[in-house]
Design a protein that fits this description.
Elements lengths: L4 H6 L32 H26 L10 H16 L5 H28 L3 H13 L2 H4 L1
Helix pairs in contact: 3-4, 4-5
Bound molecules: zinc ion.
Length: 150
């Protein structure tokens, strides 16, 4: 018996355009027909791919939101810092870019921070480095706002 393996070994197999092109890690290809709504996957694998793309977009959005919510001075020891943060949070809520539950928790934490600001100021001015340190902290928060307004 003679094998004609030379022809099959040289000729690369073209992927069937009507078959799902999804391959597993061990190189097994999906046997389903390609879904007409996707360029290369069956309906199941097209949904999986869309779901993974959606999850990736959500992760990127979370990182972006985190960068937008940075306070003016990088701390939350002045009313200007908390006010700036709350303004950014309001925009994110209005744009529906942050989960409602997280926004409520952040707003509540800001309320607590605002309630403790007088105590923080008292500690800094009476028991810490003094009133000039407090004024420097407020000035730092306000000066970082100036470049954004131009
Ligand atoms: Zn498939």
């Amino acid at each position: 018996m003679k094998f004609q393996s030379s022809r099959t070994a040289v000729t690369p197999q073209r992927p069937d355009p009507n078959r799902c092109q999804f391959s597993t890690a061990d190189d097994r290809q999906c046997r389903m027909s390609r879904w007409e709504g996707h360029v290369s996957f069956c309906l199941f694998h097209a949904r999986v791919a869309a779901s993974e793309a959606h999850k990736m977009a959500q992760l990127l959005a979370v990182e972006e939101v985190g960068q937008e919510l940075v306070s003016l001075s990088g701390e939350f020891k002045t009313a200007s810092d908390v006010n700036h943060f709350l303004g950014k949070l309001l925009l994110l809520i209005a744009q529906d870019r942050i989960p409602h539950r997280n926004a409520v928790a952040m707003a509540y934490i800001c309320q607590l921070l605002l309630c403790t600001l007088d105590s923080v100021r008292h500690e800094i001015t009476n028991e810490g480095p003094g009133f000039s340190a407090w004024k420097a902290m407020v000035a730092k928060a306000l000066s970082s706002r100036l470049p954004q307004q131009s």
